[in-house]
Amino acid sequence: MQLSKTLKTTALATGLGLALSVPTLAQELKVWELSSTSEGVNQNWEDVIAQFEAEHPGVTVKFETFDGESYKKGLAVALASNNGPDVFFNWGSEDSISLARNGLAADVSELGEGRWLDYIGEEMLGPFSMDGKAYGVPTHSIAVYMYYNKDFFAENNMDFPKTSDEMFEACKKVPEMAGGSAFTVLGNKDQWRGIHYVSMITSQYVGSENMLKDMRLLNDADELFTDPGYVKALEFIARMEKEGCFQPGVNATTADMSDAIFTSGGGMSDYCGTWCASGFDRQGFEGKYAIAPFPAISDAPKENQNYILGLTEGFQISAKSEHKELAADFVSLLLTDEVQAQRLVKAARIPLNGANVDQYADEVHLTIQEVVADLPNYDGFAPILDVDLNGKLVDVYKRGIQDVIDGRTTPEELMATVQEEARKIKNAM
Predict the structure, then answer these.
(1) Tens digit of pLDDT for each residue in 375-418?
(2) What is the rounded distance in angstroms from the CA atom of residue 396 to the CA atom of residue 216?
(3) Pairing, β 289-292 against β 87-91
(4) Distance separating alpha carbons of residues 369 and 51, to the nearest angstrom
(5) Are 3-140+312-373 and 143-309+380-428 in the same CATH fold?
(6) How far apart are CA 358 and CA 353, in angstroms?
(7) 143-309+380-428, what's its fold?
(8) Closest Cα to residue 412, out of 175, 174, 238, 291?
(9) So what's the architecture of 3-140+312-373 in CATH?
(10) Digit-coded pLDDT (tens) for 81-91
(11) Residue 344 to residues 48, 121, 351, Cα–Cα distance (Å)
């Protein structure tokens, strides 16, 4: 099977146009996923599709991939049409629950019997569940770490900062030692990297449980986002910009550009997800970096500091799909012992089913091995604002972070806007 025949990266607008105009074949299963430049990720998908088609004679998988921002904005529109995907990737959070709430994602509670529930516990469906019913299936986890230039820190007899006080000292020292290179990089033109920083910082000030209550609008309208920790988190990232922790022009730098700045020596660290290691390797930086958790914020409550930014990802089935049983078989295949192991080896996806992982320990990327060993040390995942936040507030927060970094608005002004919008949405529910 040629990858070009099964894996097509397109703009979502093109995909939507096709979805609205081309009827789905009787034995065609349409699967949507995020695009990737990783050869391992793409090879893994080719293997999975080949296995599924071999196990389901006469069925063809139409596999399409899209960039993240376009995907988020266009997925609901596609699902509302009559020819959207049968199976689609999503984040286990408000992103998936909102589709269930709007009748776009199928209830898969009964479909799990004899399928994915043979490989994972029912309690693991929580991030995709609402009112006691499952509307999606988790297939793997991701986490975000500080990747740092280990040679630079070793040569200068420096430990990577464990606290924010140490980090701000490093923000002053690193440019002097590294010929002007920044302590860390941030590509926030796409807005999602900045919100990763703010999510991690906010979780330390506000606490993960309190954040989730606000983000899902569970608190009373007048109490939403009023914890002073929200303002403190924005003040923190503004201080990072003011004190030169980042490279110049963060809001004009894309995420991919910031990664390239890191691997080329323009910054000595990069706050990035577990998917980033293979990208750094492709840029010639293999073996030159190590990972560490985001520094503990010195004036934040201690009980909030043992969390790592991350989440569970998986797949949902369209409520309009005419092939729900086939779709359930496809999702279940992703959780089988061998597929889970191979997704770890080739795609660096942290498995939920580790039955076969030990057989391939030597083949797993060293950084991912470190992550798998490190994750049990934390109390849980800190929530990510653009994933768990009510959808109508996401753009307000993301644009606002850019404005705070550039000094166009104050943390207090942004949070006042967030509070006002949250109250409107809550009162309209």
Answers:
(1) 999 999 999 998 888 878 999 999 999 999 999 999 999 999 99
(2) 15
(3) unpaired
(4) 26
(5) yes
(6) 12
(7) D-Maltodextrin-Binding Protein; domain 2 (3.40.190)
(8) 238
(9) 3-Layer(aba) Sandwich (3.40)
(10) 988 999 999 99
(11) 13, 19, 6
